[in-house]
Specification:
The chain contains 10 helices and 13 strands.
């Protein structure tokens, strides 16, 4: 299951707020989602109301700010994110975690809205995901928010627990949670050969030229480069998918992608499956090693990315 983000509805301000503050909430929300997509480009943003109706202060929503000509780019970006509303996961994804058998509330000693039902934060805990809050109060900038959980036991009794849900209000908070979130999303791929065999299923928007097969299949179980390769290829695949849906001029990648320098472009020239020599200039890093993925973005005959190199930085051996 992809990373699940749950908007914390309790953090949405309904009181009168200046336009500048409402706009800042929207921009920070988008920056936070962008950072989270570096962890999982296929994440799902769950909300209790459609995103366009998210309150950002009295009389202000994402839609109203966009309609006034502000934060247009941010609004368009949110359209590229997998979004679900209301807060309900399909039964197939829920497994044995039935939200109907649980109730999450803020602690009685919470500094704000004490004892209130916490839908978004509760789902974040139940599905081992991440709550996403607007920084409308100091309590919503905490990395963990304590909740009271009441749930039914197998005998029909009620069990009470004190739990903590992950919470993020900013890109910095996403960085703090990255290790824990990556651990929940560890790829089930045990080797580069497994990734290659499943490439059509997992990466349908990517085409691999022949030379990349040996590069990917050489990645062994336990090699840190295997996880990095999977994460970056998945990020490129998701960016192309969003590009196809939004029909924007160019894909928006969830990490830094840059062209090769003019003096090094010849190193990135490879032969594609049809025998044509092409320059795979665009590339991203496979941190923390000196390794790269080089690719070409194509708009015809369909929007896709052609992968030309997966391995060590070109020209260093």
């Amino acid at each position: 299951m992809p990373l699940q983000l749950f908007l914390n509805e309790l953090s949405a301000p309904h009181e009168l707020t200046s336009r500048a503050i409402s706009v800042s909430y929207l921009r920070q929300l988008v920056a936070t989602v962008r950072k989270a997509r570096e962890i999982d480009s296929q994440l799902i943003l769950n909300s209790d109301v459609p995103l366009t109706n998210l309150p950002l202060g009295e009389g202000a929503t994402i839609a109203s700010i966009r309609n006034d000509g502000e934060c247009v780019e941010e609004s368009l970006y949110l359209k590229t994110v997998n979004n679900r509303a209301p807060l309900m996961l399909p039964a197939a994804e829920a497994g044995d975690r039935d939200p109907g058998l649980c109730e999450y509330r803020l602690r009685p000693d919470a500094p704000l809205r004490s004892g209130e039902v916490a839908l978004g934060l509760g789902y974040a805990h139940l599905f081992d995901g991440l709550g996403l809050s607007l920084p409308s109060h100091d309590v919503w900038i905490e990395r963990l928010i304590e909740l009271d959980l009441a749930k039914l036991d197998p005998n029909g009794g009620i069990v009470n627990e004190r739990v903590a849900a992950r919470n993020a209000d900013s890109p910095t908070a996403i960085t703090d949670h990255a290790g824990a979130l990556l651990a929940t999303l560890a790829p089930t791929l045990i080797s580069g050969e497994a990734l290659w065999e499943r490439r059509l299923e997992l990466l349908p928007n990517l085409i691999f030229i022949p030379r990349t097969r040996a590069q990917i299949c050489s990645l062994l179980a336990g090699d840190p480069l295997l996880e990095q390769t999977w994460l970056k290829l998945r990020g490129i695949n998701q960016a192309i998918e969003a590009w196809r849906i939004t029909q924007s001029p160019y894909p928006m990648f969830p990490f830094n992608v840059r062209p090769e320098s003019r003096s090094r472009r010849a190193l990135a020239e490879f032969e594609d499956a049809e025998g044509n020599r092409r320059i795979f200039s665009d590339h991203c890093d496979l941190a923390p090693t000196e390794a790269r993925i080089h690719f070409i973005v194509e708009s015809a005959p369909q929007r896709r990315a052609l992968i030309g190199h997966v391995g060590r930085k070109l020209g260093i051996g």
